[in-house]
């Protein structure tokens, strides 16, 4: 405002170009302001409240901002189960065709392929469904005990799931399962936060 | 669980599938744990190992069967919602019966009829319990006088309210 004669006022207030003025506390009638140089003596509000880059919703009492893990658990499990069934059926079709490729088109061949499809579909659906069940259960438990919800929960739940799923295979199996779970959920967390991270890296390099 | 509302229709299928899988896997896990424990050779170590093996092999299978039931039920339910244009208990009962019939289709018509009857009756019981529960809850929260008045403070002849009885009976 005054051409920056005094460069003392830094920090958040400096963002608004009030660097040099430096109103004293007496000018502000003794109203304490938190950690900033004020915009003007007549406008004593914290400039932090002028920044609006987050969503602001008015929520009903007792409602959460987003749905928790428990509300999403059944959807996750069902989605994994159905995905597993679809991919398992495809795999069964592939295996069945490969196994019977020297048979003529006939009823036994069709039945064999169909059996393969249903068996593989059920197998994959069960496997993926129980993995998702373990993951959701761990996720809900971690969320409730920590009382917070972020990507750390995802990664921890994934690692624990892998470890428990392979827990009958000895220490080596546990380690392998844990690493697999850690990798998969870590990649998922990275993918989820990609835009956010890209922005912050770009902001740092500027 | 606070006020668990059902998902809108196409996603309800996935949700019901997952719920059924969870129910089946957890219930089957408990059941198979006990069964494996009892059917193993003597010795705590053997018994625990047998229990674990039983859970690992059988619980996901039971979950999968439940998931098929739940998913098919929900698919038929959603189709009926779409066709009839309304959601009521009859949808659930019919889709329960149809699901039972379809899943028993390879065992012959008699088994289909029996299975359909089982499914329909089961879903009718569930829906009936839900309706009864809602009624019971609504009479609990009726808008009547909330506190009993002290009889010594009452006027000699309590005149009826000019607005009639507030309580709602369904």
Automatic annotation (TrEMBL), chain A:
UniProt KW keywords: Membrane, Mitochondrion, Mitochondrion inner membrane, Protein transport, Translocation, Transmembrane, Transmembrane helix, Transport
GO molecular function terms listed in the Swiss-Prot or TrEMBL record: protein transmembrane transporter activity
One Pfam family hit: Tim17
Record-annotated membrane-spanning stretches: 72-93, 123-142, 173-191
Record localization: Mitochondrion inner membrane
Topology versus the membrane: Multi-pass membrane protein
GO biological process, one term: protein import into mitochondrial matrix
Primary localization class, coarse: mitochondrion
GO CC, one annotated term: TIM23 mitochondrial import inner membrane translocase complex
InterPro entries in alphabetical order: Tim23 (IPR005681), Tim23-like (IPR045238)
Family statement: Belongs to the Tim17/Tim22/Tim23 family.
Function as written in the Swiss-Prot or TrEMBL entry: Essential component of the TIM23 complex, a complex that mediates the translocation of transit peptide-containing proteins across the mitochondrial inner membrane.
NCBIfam families in alphabetical order: 3a0801s02tim23 (TIGR00983)
Subunit relationships: Component of the TIM23 complex, at least composed of TIM23, TIM17, TIM50 and TIM21.
The name this protein goes by in its record: Mitochondrial import inner membrane translocase subunit TIM23
Automatic annotation (TrEMBL), chain B:
Keyword list, A-Z: Membrane, Mitochondrion, Mitochondrion inner membrane, Protein transport, Translocation, Transmembrane, Transmembrane helix, Transport
GO biological process, one term: protein import into mitochondrial matrix
NCBIfam families assigned: 3a0801so1tim17 (TIGR00980)
Name recorded for this polypeptide: Mitochondrial import inner membrane translocase subunit TIM17
One Pfam family matching this protein: Tim17
Entry similarity comment: Belongs to the Tim17/Tim22/Tim23 family.
One MF term in the entry's GO annotations: protein transmembrane transporter activity
Keyword Ubl conjugation: no
PANTHER family in UniProt: MITOCHONDRIAL IMPORT INNER MEMBRANE TRANSLOCASE SUBUNIT TIM-17, MITOCHONDRIAL IMPORT INNER MEMBRANE TRANSLOCASE SUBUNIT TIM17-A
Assembly information from the UniProt record: Component of the TIM23 complex, at least composed of TIM23, TIM17, TIM50 and TIM21.
Chain residue ranges for the region called Disordered: 144-170
Record membrane topology: Multi-pass membrane protein
Subcellular location: Mitochondrion inner membrane
Gene Ontology cellular component terms for the protein in this record: TIM23 mitochondrial import inner membrane translocase complex
Reported function: Essential component of the TIM23 complex, a complex that mediates the translocation of transit peptide-containing proteins across the mitochondrial inner membrane.
Keyword NADP attributed: no
InterPro entries to which the protein is assigned, alphabetical: Tim17
């Amino acid at each position: 405002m005054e051409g920056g004669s005094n460069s003392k006022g830094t920090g958040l207030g400096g963002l608004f170009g009030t660097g040099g003025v430096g109103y004293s506390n007496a000018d502000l009638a003794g109203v304490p302001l938190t950690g900033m140089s004020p915009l003007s003596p007549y406008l004593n509000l914290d400039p932090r409240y002028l920044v609006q880059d987050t969503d602001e919703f008015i929520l009903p009492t007792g409602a959460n901002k987003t749905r928790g893990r428990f509300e999403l658990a059944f959807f996750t499990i069902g989605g994994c189960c159905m995905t597993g069934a679809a991919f398992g059926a495809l795999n069964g079709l592939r295996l069945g065709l490969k196994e019977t490729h020297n048979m003529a088109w006939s009823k036994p061949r069709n039945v064999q392929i169909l059996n393969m499809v249903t068996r593989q579909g059920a197998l994959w659906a069960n496997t993926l469904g129980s993995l998702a069940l373990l993951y959701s259960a761990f996720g809900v438990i971690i969320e409730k005990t920590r009382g917070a919800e972020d990507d750390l929960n995802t990664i921890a739940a994934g690692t624990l799931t892998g470890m428990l799923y392979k827990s009958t295979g000895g220490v080596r199996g546990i380690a392998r399962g844990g690493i697999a779970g850690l990798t998969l959920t870590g990649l998922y967390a990275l993918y989820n936060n990609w835009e956010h991270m890209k922005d912050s890296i770009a902001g740092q390099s500027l | 669980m606070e006020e668990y509302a059902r998902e809108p229709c196409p996603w309800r299928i996935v949700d019901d599938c997952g719920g059924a899988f969870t129910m089946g896997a957890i219930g089957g896990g408990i059941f198979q744990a006990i069964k494996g424990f009892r059917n193993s050779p003597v010795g705590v170590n053997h018994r625990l190992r047998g229990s674990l093996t039983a859970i690992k092999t059988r619980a996901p299978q039971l979950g999968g069967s439940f998931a098929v039931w739940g998913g098919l039920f929900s698919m038929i339910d959603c189709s009926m919602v779409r066709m009839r244009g309304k959601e009521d208990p009859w949808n659930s009962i019919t889709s329960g019966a149809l699901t039972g019939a379809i899943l028993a289709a390879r065992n012959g018509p008699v088994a289909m009829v029996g299975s359909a009857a089982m499914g329909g009756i089961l879903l009718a019981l569930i829906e009936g319990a839900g309706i009864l529960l809602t009624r019971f809850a609504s009479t609990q929260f009726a808008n009547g006088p909330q506190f009993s008045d002290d009889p010594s403070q009452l006027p000699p002849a309590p005149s009826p309210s000019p607005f009639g009885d507030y309580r709602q009976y369904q």
